[in-house]
Amino acid sequence: MTSSTRTTSRTASPVSTDFDFLVGEWDVTNRRRTDFLDEASEWEEFPAVSHGTRHFDGGANFDEIEFPTKGFAGLTLRLFDRETRLWALHWADRRTGRLFPPVVGGFEDGRGEFYGDDTHEGKPVRVRFIWSGITADSAHWEQAFSVDDGGTWVTNWHMDLTRR
């Protein structure tokens, strides 16, 4: 299902609480591929610390994540469109100072799927984020890229979050 046709199972309301679980401090275990487009590439593991906040009565969510062993940080701004009932997730990276194109989608039955278009090392890619396994004290996020418009996906990054 494309992001433009995806709907959520919730009834219409002026705000969303989908990302409220991210509010607070998190320890994050990262596993990412050394080559984001090669499913046979090695995985590297490294820690991070994330701090999330809620805004606009749940219609916005912000988190900043620090990767101490990698020497970089990033932030995500999530905005809920009250008309379409979809979230747009915007990532920015301290290394580039650039706001990446958003991924758009929503949650259904506790699982969030978000899609967008970007480039990786000069190649156009379709991007997918999935949020799953969400509890009061843990959550899982993963990222995948597709070079054939979603025909096949290479999952290239996992984050397992544990509340501090």
Description:
The protein has 164 residues and is mostly beta strands. The chain contains no helices and 11 strands. Strands 1-2-3-4-5-7-8-9-10-11 form a 10-stranded antiparallel beta barrel. A hairpin with a 7-residue loop joins strand 10 and strand 11. The protein is globular and about 40 Å long. The termini are far apart.
**Strand percentage:** over 45%
How many runs of DSSP E, i.e. beta strands?
11
Could you report the average pLDDT, rounded to the nearest whole number? Answer: 92
Count of separate DSSP helical elements: 0
Rounded Rg: 15 Å
Strand numbers in spatial order across the main sheet: 1-2-3-4-5-7-8-9-10-11
Specify the biggest β-sheet.
10 strands, antiparallel, barrel
Q: What general outline do the C-alpha atoms trace?
A: globular
Give the low-confidence spans: 1-11
- Spell out the helices and strands N to C: EEEEEEEEEEE
Helix proportion: under 10%
Give the end-to-end Cα distance, rounded to a whole number of Å. 35 Å
Name the structural class. Answer: mainly beta
